[in-house]
Amino acid sequence: MGLARSSASPYPALMTTDSHDWFSTAVQALADPQGQRVWSIIVSFLGDMAQGEGAGISSAALSRVITPLGIKPEAIRVALHRLRKDGWTDSERRGRGSVHFLTAHGRAQSAEVTPRIYNRSPCATRDWHLLIAGTAEGLERLDALSSRASAGLIRVNRQTGLGAGAAPAERAELLTLEATVATVPTWLREELFPPPLRRSCLALDSALTPLGTPPLLDPLRRACLRTLVVHRWRRIVLRHPHLPATFHPEDWTGETCRRKVFALLDALPQPRLLELEQADPLPDDDATGQAAGANTGT
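Structure (tokenized):
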């Protein structure tokens, strides 16, 4: 059963060209209604603006970027501790403060999903392969392929996986067939794009609709908004395979949302890290406080 859709956005049309008003309203509109985990927001920021080896950001500059999203400094410290513990980030003292950066593990994890997050094109795959496991070793191989984001394997059921393009080289113990997708049943569409995911995508699509082209914004405000947009989009796009329209439920808004995401990101060019280090904090009335609903949970 499809989700109810409305042509009217719940957010007011942003007609103002005042950068302060536009920024504040955009942050409130783009805040995730389900709340945002601070460690995940930091990963989104680092993956977008500091993914390269040697790239890092100071505690002060990081706070200037994400506290306007309603995140408290104490929550940032807790989230950074968790990321260091999990091997995603590391830090070092420089002068009177600390600089935070992705570890080799963190860079590798970010690099693996970057093509998915920043892919602007709808899927046009026509050639597929089918992998079927009939032994314990085959199931282990299928599980390993499913866990790799780059493999893009669709688990039709416990023993069967459907993948785009040529079959992987690591397919020992798997029956491998070349396939053409003729029909996709409703049960598989619902499984690939469950209602909570469709609601999240529709919410972001609706939030982006009235924003239009932003006014000229300073580097810090651009970094705030880029982080928010990339984070919301990342949480959607990494929760489903990249599939052609044949696989989409009728109420899936992913492709219209994709176009709006990149239209806004194109209008918010990446600032240089040095610009964020040199930026003054935003005034208190630019900090939304209630907007992000952030938490430090898992």
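Strands lie at 36-37, 57-58, 89-94, 97-102, 128-133, 154-157, 160-164, 174-179, 294-295. The first strand starts at residue 36 and ends at 37.
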